[in-house]
Amino acid sequence: MRIATYNINGINSRLHVLLRWLEEFRPDVVGLQELKCTDEAFPAKDLEALGYSSIWHGQKSWNGVALLSRVGEPVETGRGLPGDPDDAQSRYIEAAVCGVLIGNLYLPNGNPWPGPKFDYKLTWMDRLHAHGRHLLDSGLPALLMGDFNVIPTDQDVYKPERWAKDALFSPEAKAKFAELVAQGWTDALRKLHPDERIYTFWHYWRNSFQRDAGIRIDHFLLSPPLTKSLKAAGVDRTPRGWEKTSDHAPVWIEVDV
Question: Where is the signal peptide (predicted)?
Fold first, then answer.
């Protein structure tokens, strides 16, 4: 099964990009982030025309996450990250597909740092830690995927010094990401490509993509049962070079299920 995560950066304004990529790449399951649309405006029928069933958690103008599947309807198991019932931001959706429990997330950016948005980021990560532990304790094949808005190490950024004051590269965020992985998760890209410089995001300005001046902030974390079946992982850079595209590229894994 091929599973992908893609921060689409506005699903309706970039629907032509998404549909073209789905037709060409044909992933079995996709997690989308930054829908930037209400639940009513989600283009479910366009996705159905390509054979994808969808569940989504939208929000006007901001955030928003969705899961698509062409290998059976996603069976929703969670909407919104547990731990704060008053959190109104649409950043997490979870479903079972083909026996795999999939958590799709859009972690807060946290800028400007320091400040209230950064505090929210760290609190959200604490909640993710608690839920991640719950998923691992279940013993099920599970994964957390999406835009984590964290650059884990110097290896994951083109020029570390240029990100030194950014919340994505803050010591606190990196430490919390490392603590999450240390629960027992496997960073799929690093598992199979330990020494490569791999990026998943490039700014629109200064020809960042053409210069490959990127960062790695989109991740797959796999539970131990799923790690055993990991066959391949990579970044599909192709759609990042298309017209009016997202500033992220899709990340994908292949697992036996």
Answer: none
